[in-house]
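REQUEST ID: PR-0412
SUBMITTED BY: lab tech R.K.
PRIORITY: routine
TASK: structure prediction, single protein chain
INPUT:
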Amino acid sequence: MNRGRCIRLRGRIPLKGPLLRPPTAPPDGYTLLMGSNSTVSVAPSLYPKNPYHPVRDFSPVSLVAFTPFVLVAHPSVPAKTVKQLIVLAKSKPGLLTMASGGTGSSNHLVGELFQSLTGAKFTHIPYKGAAPAGVDLMAGHVDLLFDQLATSVGPIKSGKFHALAVASKTRSAAVPEVPTMAESGVQNYEVLNITGVLAPANTPAEIIGKLNAATLKVLSQPLVKERFAAIALDARGSTPGEFSAYIREDFAKWSKVVKDANIKVD
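STATUS: complete
OUTPUT:
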């Protein structure tokens, strides 16, 4: 869940100050945000003083792509399926260690949601980023990681990670042998990392419509789909209304996870 990037389509205007700030650009269609779950869902849920609201301060244009989260383990972990993992975690609470990119990171929140749904209990080991967490998982210093498939597909295919399940409704074409969480007995656990285009609030509907049409046209091109698929991303657009509904639902989901798990960050 990388932080979004502000893109100025007309001229070069350097970004200054913190990224997490209220959008102040004119709603003219020339300043857009390439946002992700961290921008529109997680940060507003996690930081009480976050200076913008994901619903109030943006006009969604279209989803662009998504990749599911995947539960991966070091090959030495005796549980080879999700069901076996849950049994082991319940029989010995806290025995298994769960790495993350840091307290409040997407890896952490996705893992907390899994524990709340299954009753499993892991020991959370936060790192300063998902990359070092993945490195220590490869080395066997930790047991588990909930990671984006796009970044874990390489270690999965090389055998450095054992993939237990993907958190999408259907299996991923990138790793078709890996079952879904639903197939593994965990229902209502669809967790995707999405990327989408947003404009400032109050951008006229006519402008949003033109931007949406242009985005969908690009995403429909076979070469674009192939390039996304090569890195385990599914290129898929949406209507502005569908993206808006997704933001509302995702924001509500992660706000509840943060509250229920009592996650605090400095």
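NOTES: Strands lie at 5-8, 31-36, 58-73, 97-100, 123-126, 144-148, 162-166, 192-200, 234-235.
REVIEWED BY: pending
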